Each structure stands twice: as structure tokens, then as C-alpha cells.
Amino acid sequence: MTKGKWLIVYIGIIAMALFLVACNNGEETEEDDATEFLTMLTGGTSGTYYPLGGEMATIIKNETGIQTDALSSNASADNVVALQNEEAELAFVQTDVVAFAVEGTNAFEDNPVKNVQAIGALYPETIQIVTTKNTGIDSVEDLQGKTVSVGAPGSGTYINAEQILEIHGMTMDDIETQHLDFGESTSGIQDGNIDAAFITAGTPTGAVEGLGASVDISIVPIEEDKIEALVEKYPYYAKDTILGGTYGGLDQDITTVAVGAMLAVTDSLSEDVVYDITKAIYENADSISHSKGAFITKENGALGIGIDFHPGAEKYFKEVGVLE
């Protein structure tokens, strides 16, 4: 081959190499841009989701390099809608609420959510019917005719309240409903503007702790037979106990029920990214200072999940032997 022809071949090889590098760099930039920032929706600042989400967002940033912002929100139902509308990538949700969303039932009737999948279970969320000792409310039936905060319509707390009242032969029409967040609910109880509030959150809940610091609170128990009836009809509930001493003025154990808290994700994130996020959370949860961090383990991560796992989360849980 002549020297001139070698030069032409050489130039061609260099041009092709530059072209391939440019293409690869473009792909890497696109992937990096897609995963360099994530939004995680939590809940109200006086609940459990918000402080716990802040710690989890820090873990994700430290372990994966992906900047993750934990934002306050109206919690489960609104969070699912935000994921559906691609306004966020990650969100705290109740296991029952996200199951309703995927099934297209309750608040999501005729509008099933197709793009939301599971990362994993986090901890039990206790249904706390909070009041004060001077209201005379000692049972669920005593709520009849009282002013009670039940959360926003369609929210996880609202659905929990509705179902618990149902098991006791009551409906929302039997109480004077208020639709307040946790902080507003406990402030209303303290001020005497409402008599009680349903609060579905991990214990201890910040808003309830604040109330217990100023008044003697009481938490309404749910009787064993009602718990059995509730679990039979709605299997995502489980019996739970609020230990005496959890809040000021609470001097004995209270039997109630709980649903699960979980982290959900949109299916638009790649398998690799969600795998890294899942691994980061479940292998570094021992660094979480919030008391609910103790529940966040890889052994518990696949429990009580009623929707499909994201392929990245599924890969992690299969890798550690939690899923087959």
C-alpha cells in the first residue's frame, strides 16, 4: 500500500474513533443528566416520613453520588399522584394506599396508576387515635358525635379512619370530620377545637410528642375482636402495640393496628440506578438516627409489598436472598 493510501486509512480510523467517542460521551451525559438529581417526597414536617426521608436522602447522596432532596408533602395519596405525573422519582407511601392506586380502587377508582413500583418496605405505621384524658373518649364508639380530624379525603389516614369506623358499625357521618394534617390536628386538640384525631405514622410521632409535652394525652385502643374483623376484611392491617411511656401521659400499653410504610419509585429510573439506591438504603440503615431506622433491614424489605418491585430493587433483594 502506498504512503498516500496509508495516510487516508489512518485519517479514516482517527475520524471513526472520534465519532465513537463523541457518541459514547453523549450517551454517558444523557444517563448522568437523568440520574444526577432525584426528588423524594415524604410527608408533613411533624410526622415520621419527613425526618426519616431526610436521613435516607443523605445516604443515597453519600453512597451513590446522586443528589437527592427530601421534600415535605401531603403524604401517601398525593405522593402517588405526583409519581404518576412524573413530578418526583421517589416517595414514601403506605402499602395499602399504593396498592389501591395500582388496582384503581378507593381514591384511585377508574384511574389506576401504571408507572409506580416498589423499592421496599420500611417500618410499621401505627394508627393512633389521639385525644386527651379529659374528653371522656375511651373507645372508638365514643367518637360518635365528636369533632375528629381524619386527614385529607383519599389520604392513607382518611382511609384508615373510614375502615376502622366501618368495623365499629360507624361511618364518617357519625362524627364531625375535620381534614387536618398531623400538626394542625394536635394543635386543635390542645386548643380544644377538636376532640380527637386519627394519625397514621411511625411511633413516636413528632406531633403527638409535642402534644404530650403540654397535656395528658390518651390514645384510644381497638379491641381484639375488632382487630380480628379488620384484618380479616383488610389483610394489609396487622395488630400493633403502642408501648406505655411512648408519650407523656401514656402510662400503659395500647392495642391498635398498623399498616406498612414503604418507598416507591417511578419505573422511568434505570435498573442500575434503582439497584444502587436500594443497596445504599438497606445496607446503611444502621446509620439512621431516627428510631424507625431499626426496622429498615434487607430481611424486612420485601415484607407486605402488594405491588411489583422495580427491577433494580428486585435484583438487590434476589442478590441478598430475600426474594427467589
From TrEMBL:
Tree of life domain: Bacteria
Pfam short name (any one): NMT1_3
Entries under CDD domains matching the protein: PBP2_TtGluBP
Membrane-spanning parts: 6-23
Alphabetized Gene3D superfamilies for the sequence: Periplasmic binding protein-like II (3.40.190.10)
Assigned keywords, A-Z: Membrane, Transmembrane, Transmembrane helix
Protein name: TAXI family TRAP transporter solute-binding subunit
Species in which this protein is naturally found: Gracilibacillus marinus
